[in-house]
Design brief:
mainly beta
Length: about 210
């Protein structure tokens, strides 16, 4: 069982979604399967995704994938060939979806035992920052850090591994100050978000930290 004698510092990272356009009139947070509805007041009935430059779609329009998110330029128009320039209206669309993959500090372990594990060697007494980020997910995922301990127990002649994850109480990047030799450990970052505000979905990545003595 490993002992953690390093000093952990808390780093807080704020992530904000922004739009380059100052004339965005409306923001929608939708689930896959929801419909982007027309705006009755302005008679908006067609939209085009500015980010992808995709085809113009008629409203109401069903959200089918996360790629449907982005900034939409919407118009109130009856004839797409009309030479009269219609009034523009912008809608920023965010699609709720779970985290599907995570990238983290370190390199692929030499034993290539698992694509979910990374290995990192740190010199004793050094300071470093470990990071772990989701490649997707909305609302913005939260990163939490744990130390994993694996103990082998024997029961009725059979051996089992008991896994215990101890929450370090740290979100965002993990700063380690003057790491000691005893800090060789298995760290786990768990990245997740609340898509339906009830159940959190989380993806984890293991980082095997080896401390090289001076």
């Amino acid at each position: 069982m490993s002992r953690w004698h390093g000093t952990l510092l808390l780093a807080v990272v704020f992530t904000a979604h922004s739009c380059d356009c100052n004339d965005s009139n409306r923001t929608e947070v939708l689930n896959i399967g929801d419909m982007l509805m027309p705006t009755v007041k302005k008679n908006i009935n067609v939209c085009q995704n500015v980010y992808t430059g995709g085809k113009t779609v008629a409203l109401p329009w069903t959200i089918t994938s996360t790629s449907d998110g982005g900034l939409y330029r919407c118009l109130a128009i009856k004839n797409l060939n009309d030479s009269i320039e219609p009034t523009e209206y912008y809608v920023m669309v965010f699609i709720r979806h779970e985290v599907s993959s995570v990238i983290a500090s370190g390199d692929i372990c030499a034993d290539n035992s698992s694509s979910n594990s990374m290995c990192l060697t740190i010199e004793e007494g050094a300071s470093t920052t470990l990071w772990c980020n989701a490649t997707d997910g909305y609302p913005t995922p939260i990163v939490r850090w744990f130390i994993r301990e694996i103990d082998e127990i024997e029961y009725k002649g059979n051996k089992f591994n008991v896994i215990t994850d101890t929450d370090l109480g740290i979100e965002g990047p993990l700063l380690i100050h003057k790491i000691s030799y005893e800090c060789t450990s298995l760290l786990v970052c768990k990245v997740g978000n609340y898509v339906n505000k009830i159940k959190e979905s989380a993806v984890e990545k293991l980082i095997k930290v080896y401390v090289r003595p001076k």
